[in-house]
């Protein structure tokens, strides 16, 4: 019976397992992002949440317990000076586990364990790019491409402020439901400063999406002046461009998709082959 078993054993002794988890939490506090297997990331995240809560209390007892758990002084200094101030208004949820697929070799599930709101937050970067794509997609569908290229995405901050007020499950808005949900989670404890930063990143990514085709076209024109037989770059199969309404799965089925012959043609070919073979 599994009474009182709270952590995985990892096929190690208790001392080895505890030291391994302490090392993972120390590396997390030192670098704010680590890559490990999924079970180790989940168990290390539980311990990291408790240590950050100790650092937020600020009393002598919590300080001594955190200092005895962490293996490096730099991790303790980051906990007391940086993380306790960063997560002062956040009641919990200081870590995030992102799956990375299976590892080559032993096929073990990999994951990235990171502290939320860190300077290189992966969810923050992905959400900013998704917001830039959705805003540009909406602009291209409503306006001409030349107008969008002159003014860019525009009004990103106002759109994000409006999307932040939309409750989960309600229809409307510019962003996709999952992108809107990620925006609301990221901006819940960041306030006005976070809203400005996210809108700036989204606008920058939208401008890159607009500038990339123009840059490729200018490079192709220069190469064509040097070599007349230079062909235009072919689009990647399944690549979704700005303003495209079809899904990536439908586009990837183009000429690369396997097209079966009609049943009538297959039967006709079989009958003809049988008649010929019989006649011979």
From TrEMBL:
GO molecular function annotations of the record: structural constituent of ribosome
GO cellular component: mitochondrial large ribosomal subunit
PROSITE patterns in the record: RIBOSOMAL_L17
InterPro entries from the UniProt entry: Ribosomal_bL17 (IPR000456), Ribosomal_bL17_CS (IPR047859), Ribosomal_bL17_sf (IPR036373)
Pfam families: Ribosomal_L17
Highest taxon, organism lineage: Eukaryota
Keyword Ribosomal protein on entry: yes
Annotated GO biological process: translation
Keyword Secreted: no
Keywords associated with the record: Ribonucleoprotein, Ribosomal protein
Alphabetized NCBIfam families for the sequence: L17
Family: Belongs to the bacterial ribosomal protein bL17 family.
Protein name: Ribosomal protein L17
Organism of this sequence: Candolleomyces eurysporus
């Amino acid at each position: 019976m599994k009474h009182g078993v709270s952590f995985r054993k990892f096929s190690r002794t208790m001392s080895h397992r505890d030291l391994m988890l302490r090392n993972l939490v120390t590396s997390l506090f030192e670098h704010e992002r680590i890559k490990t297997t999924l079970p180790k990331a989940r168990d290390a995240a539980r311990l990291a949440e408790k240590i950050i809560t100790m650092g937020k209390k600020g009393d002598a007892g919590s300080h001594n317990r955190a200092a005895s758990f962490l293996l490096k002084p730099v991790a303790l200094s980051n906990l007391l000076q940086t993380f306790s101030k960063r997560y002062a208004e956040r009641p919990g949820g200081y870590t995030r586990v992102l799956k990375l697929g299976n590892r080559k070799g032993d096929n073990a599930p990999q994951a990235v364990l990171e502290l939320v709101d860190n300077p290189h937050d992966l969810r923050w970067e992905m959400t900013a790019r998704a917001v830039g794509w959705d805003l540009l997609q909406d602009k291209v569908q409503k306006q001409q491409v030349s107008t969008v290229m002159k003014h860019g995405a525009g009004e990103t901050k106002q759109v994000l402020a409006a999307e932040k007020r939309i409750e989960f499950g309600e229809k409307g808005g510019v962003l996709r439901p999952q992108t809107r949900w990620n925006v609301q989670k990221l901006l819940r404890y960041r306030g006005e400063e976070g809203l400005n930063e996210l809108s700036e990143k989204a606008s920058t990514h939208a401008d890159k999406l607009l500038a990339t085709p123009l840059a490729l076209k200018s490079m192709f024109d220069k190469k064509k002046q040097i070599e007349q037989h230079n062909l235009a770059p072919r689009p990647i199969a399944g690549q979704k461009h700005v303003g495209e309404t079809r899904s990536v799965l439908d586009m990837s089925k183009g000429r690369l998709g396997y097209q079966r012959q009609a049943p009538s043609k297959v039967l006709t070919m079989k009958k003809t082959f049988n008649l010929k073979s019989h006649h011979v």
